[in-house]
User: Which sequence fits this backbone?
């Protein structure tokens, strides 16, 4: 009878120790958590950016797309993959953290008052005014505010770092978890990233309105500090990575060095292209949607940005809760290709609900203000012409009646009808008895959409402290409980979808690509994915403007067509998922098989049995 032997402790490397590999994962995942927070820190504040900085949907869409501009058109992601394959996880992680921090700092400065009054702002006003022509693939266009242009520059640099970090972390997880709990580890990393998105949609509106003083700069500054902590996490990980390599040898980078000709092996793989296209279609219906989700819910449900952020927060939170369980299931049971298909199906259902279901339940546009929960949009002009000869053009406004601090002003609006005119003093309407600074408490509550000719915005209107003539254009009542319930369920299901697809997609790549090319393979997939992430925010912004001609109220946009576009991407992703499953059944890639291999101890015991 054969005897059973166990490996000596000295034969174990650092990655064999559970505490060590999960500590390494915690450091990598924490850095990605902070990067996801910064990536979406402005997503819940789309309407606030329009109010305070003059960013209309086209401007916002171009800014959101700028994150991937250099990755797509300068092929930075391809170079990032080469750097990863040649220099290794440790070096590339620290480099990516540094690049993210630099870009984020630029993005922050662009939104400050110091930039607004600087010569740099004047330069951006005078330059990069490119026409809206087919050949203009840049995020910049004529009429784009200087703050948005410089923010886009910072976001481009941040985008290089965050996408480099994404492929680096994926490669790092494979390095530490190959043959172990790899899908679970990737699931945990993605779950923590989703928690970052949850934190954004809850925390960003709250930080922006601290002290009842609306500021889009404050949340961005907070996120920059988190990125600094993320860089520290990468540095600490570097010490662990160095220790591991001293034990296993630096085979990752030196045993078989990368050659540019190796990219041909990746591009010539048909199944690789199916995975890459499935990835770009799915993620193009998720991440660009996140950029507009809060405003979409505001428009469809007639709610505040804080409430919209609270509702949408169940999307990343639900994904975070489910993803690790799905990763563990993939490790032990498999069925990766099947999960991709179900994830695409759920996404289609959800986006069709947003496109067709919520509009049917939308808060009715009424002809009269029935209560203080109504959302009113209209336009104002000064009762007395300005003494400096400033044109007296109308400025569009939007506000909730319930936001008024002055109860007498609230009652003045009750019973008013569409088309009626009344005198309206913004300062006195929000003035609270005994309040030292009514401007500070009011700024977050009413939207004076800046007129480019008169340059009247909310802050200036408050300082004028005189009567404006308000003409009511439309009145919307908030959606009832049914609309809230449908929206909530759809977002929960979308979160489950967002768990199914990434949890099964990324652990499948090592089954399709040679290990030596893994970093470059992830880079190419991310590059193709970035083409969609660059194109679709701009497309959605342009479509939103084109389908809402004359709509100045950022809480009254019709999102039906943009949501149908997202649903169509889900249909295409479903078709590619079915194709991938059919190929796996024919060629046996192992996509439906479990990822986890027997542990060393289990393998030795099996070898000892007769």
Assistant:
């Amino acid at each position: 009878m054969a005897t059973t032997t166990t490996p000596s402790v000295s034969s174990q490397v650092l990655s064999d120790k559970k505490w060590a590999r999960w500590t390494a994962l915690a450091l990598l995942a924490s850095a990605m958590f902070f990067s996801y927070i910064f990536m979406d820190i402005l997503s819940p504040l789309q309407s606030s950016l329009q109010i305070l900085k003059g960013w209309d949907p086209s401007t916002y869409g171009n800014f959101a797309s700028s994150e991937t501009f250099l990755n797509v058109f300068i092929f930075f992601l391809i170079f990032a993959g080469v750097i990863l394959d040649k220099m290794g996880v440790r070096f590339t992680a620290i480099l990516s953290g540094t690049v993210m921090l630099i870009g984020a700092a630029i993005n922050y400065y662009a939104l400050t008052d110091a930039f607004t009054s600087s010569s740099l702002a004047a330069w951006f006003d005078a330059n990069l005014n490119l026409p809206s022509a087919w050949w203009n693939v840049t995020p910049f266009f004529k009429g784009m505010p200087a703050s948005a242009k410089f923010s886009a520059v910072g976001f481009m640099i941040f985008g290089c770092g965050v996408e480099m970090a994404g492929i680096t972390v994926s490669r790092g997880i494979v390095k530490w978890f190959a043959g172990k709990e790899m899908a679970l580890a990737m699931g945990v990393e993605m779950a923590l990233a989703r928690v970052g998105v949850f934190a954004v949609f809850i925390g960003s509106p709250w930080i922006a309105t601290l002290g009842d003083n609306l500021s889009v700069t404050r949340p961005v500054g907070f996120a920059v500090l988190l990125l600094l902590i993320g860089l520290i996490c990468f540095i600490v990980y570097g010490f662990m990575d160095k220790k591991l390599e001293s034990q296993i040898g630096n085979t990752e980078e030196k045993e078989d060095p990368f050659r540019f000709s190796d990219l041909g092996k990746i591009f010539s793989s048909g199944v690789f292209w199916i995975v890459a296209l499935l990835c770009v279609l799915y993620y193009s219906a998720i991440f660009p949607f996140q950029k507009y989700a809060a405003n979409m819910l505001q428009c469809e449900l007639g709610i505040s940005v804080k409430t919209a952020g609270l509702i949408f927060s169940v999307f990343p939170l639900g994904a975070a809760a489910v993803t690790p369980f799905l990763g563990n299931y993939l490790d032990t049971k498999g069925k990766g290709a099947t999960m991709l298909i179900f994830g695409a199906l759920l996404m289609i259902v959800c986006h069709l609900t947003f496109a067709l279901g919520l509009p049917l339940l939308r808060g009715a546009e009424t002809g009269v203000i029935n209560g203080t929960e109504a959302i009113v949009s209209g336009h104002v002009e000064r009762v007395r012409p300005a003494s400096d000869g400033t044109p007296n053009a109308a400025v569009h406004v939007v506000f909730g009646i319930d936001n008024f601090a002055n109860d007498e002003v609230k009652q003045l609006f009750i019973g008013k009808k569409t088309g009626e005119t009344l005198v309206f003093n913004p300062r006195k309407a929000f003035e609270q008895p005994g309040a030292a600074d009514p401007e500070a408490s009011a700024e977050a509550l009413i939207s004076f959409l800046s007129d480019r000719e008169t340059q009247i915005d909310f802050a200036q209107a408050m300082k004028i402290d005189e009567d404006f003539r308000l003409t009511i254009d439309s009145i919307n009542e908030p959606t009832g409980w049914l609309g809230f319930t449908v929206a909530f369920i759809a977002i929960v299901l979308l979160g489950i979808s967002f768990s199914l697809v990434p949890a099964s997609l990324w652990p499948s790549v090592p089954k399709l690509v040679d290990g030596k090319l893994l970093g470059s393979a992830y880079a190419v997939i991310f590059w193709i994915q970035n083409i969609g992430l660059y194109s679709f925010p701009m497309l959605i912004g342009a479509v939103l403007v084109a389908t809402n001609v004359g709509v100045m109220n950022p809480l009254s946009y019709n999102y039906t067509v943009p949501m149908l576009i997202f649903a169509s991407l889900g249909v295409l992703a479903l078709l590619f998922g079915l194709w991938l499953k059919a190929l796996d059944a024919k060629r046996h890639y192992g996509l439906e098989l479990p990822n986890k291999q027997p542990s060393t101890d289990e393998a030795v015991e099996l070898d000892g049995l007769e």
